[in-house]
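Q: Convert this sequence to structure tokens.
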Amino acid sequence: MKALLLSVSVGQGHNVAAQAISDYIISQDSTSEVRIVDTLKYISPVLDKVLIGSYLSALQVYPKAFTYLYSVFNKKDDSVLSLVEKLEEAISWRILPLIREMMPEVIISTHPFTTQMLSVLREDNKLNIPTLAIITDYGSHALWVHPGIDYYVVAHESVVPEVVERGRSEDTVLPLGIPVRESFKQSFSRHDTLKKIGLDHEFLTVTLMGGSLALGNMKTILKQLDSIQRPFNIVVVAGHNEKVYDEALEIALRSDKSIAVLKYCDFMGALLQATDLLVTKPGGLTVTEALITGTPLAIFKAIGGQEEQNRQFLLKHNLAIAIDNGENPAEKIESLLFHENQLEAMRQRAALAAKPNSSQEIYHLLGQLIAQSSTNQEIAFVPELEEDGFTDKVKDIVEELKEKLESNRAAASFMSIIRNRSHGTYLELTDEELKKLEDLSREGSPQKTRNEKE
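A:
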């Protein structure tokens, strides 16, 4: 099998899904040729730095603005969305040389940007290779769903009607689940895993995490956990967030509880199997891994948009409790953690909702797509444009998009963060500057931050 996987390095879920599919294809046929491409970086490292850097900085500094933008981009008739689509059309042709070089039998997309690129090429008759998109959250979005994609794979049966409502026929939307690494389906010793991080396996274990960036108010939640009087283990996974790591270490040193503080964890499958309750933000990948390992969930808000969709899915199906609705988090966590019958009921519901064979079923689907496709696949030739011409065209669209966004309230604050990002100061915003962003969101007038005035 020759498969090209297109992803974008925004968070973990998109790349992990691509890697899981790649690993499974190779495990079934070691002669397969599989390539994963960080697409925006391939197209233009500068564009990747601006778009992805701005996105990540906004998540860390001011996630409310991201929530607003998510809702803006979710409206098919919105002028802002049309500019994003215009940008996609301008850059889509840049992946044709890559496709022409590899000549894959099938192309898989795990990000909405790359999904739209493939759709643009199909709609313009520049591509006739079979295409598949894997939506990596428990809900759909306007940026995901396009006519030029052969099949969509979604996380759960409940997502199918949402994608159909956006114009897809039901037989092209398959609830096969989000693919994860095979290690989450293997069995590990609870005793050995907890011993590895210095914890006693005889105590209940709570794991606290907030994704690779450790988003959300993890310090406050850790203090709430530490305030529970009964003994239990706590594992904190700080990811790449040094501040959270240092704060958790400081709390652990003063605590009477056994608290293990980790940075990025490369044995999450084993850790989740040893975890009695996972306290986390509801990222699509994390939710999927927890369901597959049967780990009960207590969720807090970190990012709106797709994570709010994931949150609603979990609460609707009684797969998690929410600890962000104004009630005392410590009381809710203690009530669940020390009632084994409630934990077991949650584990059983997780087993019913989980899709542990996602990679296997997607692999079989890819085989069917290849078998059904034409043997005479062609890639349209597109004349190479001068780099300056491409850059100027994209720059014009980005400037138009920025102007449009700055006419909106919360979007204006997002754009302020983008400007700070371009000055390399996005992680150095002061409390005063953050307050200005809050005021900007409420008032809607694009004010300048201190860094811009200087």
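The longest helix spans residues 387-405.
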